[in-house]
Amino acid sequence: MFSDFIDFTIKSIIFILPSYIANGAPVISSKIFIRRHPIDMGKVFIDHKRIFGDGKTYEGFIIGLITGTLTGLFLETFSYHTVEGAFILSLGTLLGDLIGSFIKRRIGIKRGQKAPFLDQLTFLYFALFLYYFFYDAIEVNIIIFLSIITPILHRFTNYVAYKLKLKEYPW
Question: How many other CB atoms are found less than 10 A from the CB of residue 164?
């Protein structure tokens, strides 16, 4: 029974790994590129607030998409994933993260401020939605498990990134 849970946990993490990598990789773009280009180009929405903010850049989006897809390519060599599935998960992750930033700006949460569950789950649910819509079905128990584990892992990895001076805030 315990070994079944371990197998399920490993299967779930391997499935979502391209998404996790795509979500975390844009932080590195700030260390690689001196000059970055915000996706919203500094424009404001009808509420006179930035659409996404300076933290969402073309460079970060591209790095996230590439690293998530390459993760799938690596996993595909062991028959654990597909490049196509990884690409869709990565794209969904990055689009979901943009949607999360859009919502945060609308409700007055500034860049770097905490937004519990919005930061941790918007990218996940959008990635899962795109994967299901364009690629394949996902077991409900995997969705439930990932909904529980992702906020915990997100908090932990952000804290590590903060300690490594890759992020300005530990959340």
Answer: 9
- Domain residue ranges in the chain: 2-163
* Rounded (to 5) percent helix, strand, coil in the chain: 65, 0, 30
How many CB atoms are closer than 10 A to CB 48? 6
CA dist 42 and 83 (Å) reads 33
3-state secondary structure at position 57: strand
Give 90-121 pLDDT, tens digit per residue: 999 999 999 999 999 999 998 888 898 898 99
**Which token pair is 59?**
């460079």
Dihedral in degrees, nearest 10, Cα atoms 134, 138, 144, 148: -60
134: Cβ–Cβ under 8 A, 6 or more apart, which residues? 88
Checking 114-120 for CB contacts under 8 A at 24+ apart, the result is 114/171, 116/151, 117/151, 119/154, 119/171, 120/150, 120/151, 120/154, 120/155
Contacts of 123 (CB under 8 A, 6+ apart): 19, 23, 92, 93, 94, 96, 97, 100
Residue with tokens 């970055």: 36
Six-digit token string for 16: 């979502």
44 neighbors 50 (Cβ within 8 angstroms): yes
User: What pTM was computed for the model?
Assistant: 0.94
